[in-house]
Amino acid sequence: MSIRAPEAARIEIDDVSLRFGGVTALDGVTLELASGSLHALIGPNGAGKTSLLNCISGLYRPSGGSITYSIEGGGERRIDRLPPHRIARLGIARTFQNIELFKHMTTLDNLMLGRHMHMRGGVLDGGLYWGRQQREEVSERRSVEEVIDFLELQAVRGDLVGNLSYGQQKLVELGRALAIEPNFLLLDEPMAGMNVEEKESLARFVLDVYEEWNITPVVIDHDMDVVMEICDRVSVLDFGRVIAVGSPDEVRADPDVIDAYLGEEAHV
Amino acid sequence: MHSGVFHTSYEADMGLRPMPAQRVRLALFVAAVLIFPFFASNYGLNLANQVAIATVGAIGLNILTGYTGQISLGQGAFMAVGAYSAGLLTLRLGLPWGVSIGLACVITAAVGVFFGLPSLRLKGLYLAIATLAAQVIVEWIITHWTALTGGTEALVIPAPELMGERLNTDFRFYWVGVTAAAGTALFAANLFRSRVGRAFVAIRDQDIAASAMGVNVFHYKLLAFATSSFFVGLSGALLAYYRTIVTWERFTLETSILYLAMIIVGGLGTIVGSFLGAVFLTLLPVLIGSAGQALQDAAPGVAGLVPHIQQAAFGLVIIVFLIFEPRGLAKIWRNVKDYFHVWPFAYRR
Ligand SMILES: Nc1ncnc2c1ncn2[C@@H]1O[C@H](COP(=O)(O)OP(=O)(O)OP(=O)(O)O)[C@@H](O)[C@H]1O
Ligand SMILES: [Mg+2]
Fold this sequence. Notes:
The complex is a heterodimer. Chain A has 2 domains: 9-91 and 182-267, Rossmann fold; 102-165, no CATH class. By secondary structure, chain A is of the alpha/beta class. Chain A has a 6-stranded mixed β-sheet, with helices on both faces. Chain A has a 4-stranded antiparallel β-sheet with strand order 2-1-4-5, covered by helices on one side. Chain A is built from 10 helices and 10 strands. The radius of gyration of chain A is 19 Å and the shape is globular. In chain A, helix 3 (107-114) runs parallel beside helix 6. The longest helix of chain A is centred in the middle third of the chain and has 20 residues, at 131-150. By secondary structure, chain B is mostly helical. Chain B has a single domain (17-342), classed as ABC transporter involved in vitamin B12 uptake, BtuC. Chain B is built from 14 helices and 4 strands. Chain B has helices at residues 10-13, 20-39, 42-67, 75-93, 97-116, 124-144, 146-149, 170-191, 195-212, 217-243, 253-266, 271-294, 300-324, 328-339, and strands at 155-156, 161-162, 165-166, 245-246. In chain B, the strands form 2 sheets. In chain B, strands 1-4 form a two-stranded antiparallel ribbon. A two-stranded antiparallel ribbon of chain B has the order 2-3. In chain B, a hairpin with a 2-residue loop joins strand 2 (161-162) and strand 3. The longest helix of chain B is centred in the middle third of the chain and has 27 residues, at 217-243. Chain B is globular. The two termini of chain B are 15 Å apart. Classes of the chains: A alpha/beta, B mainly alpha. Chain A binds chain B through residues 57-59, 83-85, 88-89, 93-94, 96, 100-105, 109, 112-114, 116-117, 119-123, 125-129, 133-134, 136-138, 141-142, 145, 158, 176-177, 180, and chain B through 10-11, 14, 187-188, 190-191, 193-199, 201-202, 204-206, 208-217, 223, 226-227, 269, 349. The structure holds adenosine-5'-triphosphate and magnesium ion. Adenosine-5'-triphosphate binds at residues 20, 23, 25, 43, 45-51, 97, 222 of chain A. Adenosine-5'-triphosphate (ATP) binds next to strand 2 and helix 1 of chain A.
């Protein structure tokens, strides 16, 4: 693996609130995400999971509270006022609930875009494509090929991602985030819409990312079952509040969690 | 039948023209371009020079609109900035024409960045209207700042000279025009297979995802305005030296729309398309004009209608392409290549 080993890091979410007009999407959320666990963030529909993820990655600005990011031996900093590209550069990568790929680019280019922050070339380098630029493109291509091999995307390397199947697109999105070489990998419902087989292989990839690449995944899902099997630390959101944090077994037995999910079923 | 071409190194796979058939086509095209002026009439050369200059401008606009997704109605204004800067730098400061053109490109890039600032907040139609402001403001400055620009009077500039030869014939200017067009095309082709070009396209396709992947979207939008305007300025500056007369009437909103038509008809976000669109929209009025002339005896009334038909055809062509082939001539060209997929050279893609 030429991709560097990630650093141990920690995201501390402290009393974060987020309001949209009259809707309170997040209501005093306090949560800690740290390297060394495979995190899950679950909760019924509309609980605020995506909103929280958007706050972490800088797409939403919390109405109150703070989010702090620290890298072991590297000091800490507030990130809740930083623009998304700065947060990505700190090592927090993500995928989107509704696939947000660059549709008219190939799989390869989507992943190469993930390498953007690790590259230097400017307009003039690109336009002239002289030695230094070519070397950079080639060496980054090598890193990207490792991700392609890992996710078994070789066959669709040169295809426009708009033409790929839903499951393949989900994988390319995962690959694009991995190409960033992040410390944290925030996955917003990575298995939604997949068939059982695809779900299983995706779960396998997430475990490999965690165990072999030492990247810390945070898997969001509203469905408990799959995440419970692979994650070791589960946080549960309901109506914008954290109602439980703990191991899968602890969370499953928590009366508030049972209520929240039963409540959801009652609505359905 | 061949099964395709496979590359054994990334360098080869990442080349601009990785397939043998592509290289052969390119070689044939280059040969044709080099031989053309020795056989073409003056009129043919005149059209070729117009095409070359329009190609530079169309690639410039395509960088911004086709590749980065920022619609611009300020093309005419940016060409005007290039043309007037180049002309005035030579007339007022006595700079050699090459230096004037280079500086004109840089000045236009800066002006482009300035008028690109609204792209921080505005998208789509709203941005188009903001760039329309560029068109109005630049036109106003040119026609009212008489002391600098000569106002509505034409600016007459000396023909460029190269190694003691005045480039005042179509044959001589051809080499300047073709070099500029080829250089621009090569630059753009390289740009869009490397880091910055990918960031431009990513912003067009999904700007939020681009920012979450570490792309400073605002920075790259302005960079797209700068890069685009640089080449649009080049095209304006070349036009100034080709005509040796600069008037503001050449750079109105109509020009902006003409160039948008070129990239729509040619193909948004392709370099071949920029060239094909420039060819098509330069030749279209010419063809209609000569058709009208041919009909003069048979149907004398038609000749008088030619200017109107030229206008209408222009609009019609845009509509036809938007409806039937929104990916433009570049897509049709691609279909032709695909049709000859197996003969005489097999290649994948
Ligand atoms: N951009 C927005 N504008 C207005 N309201 C929003 C916005 N984003 C989220 N909300 C609201 O915030 C609440 C939480 O939504 P969010 O998408 O974070 O939930 P979720 O837990 O991700 O749900 P799901 O499982 O359906 O994805 C919802 O009531 C939603 O309508
Ligand atoms: Mg969600």
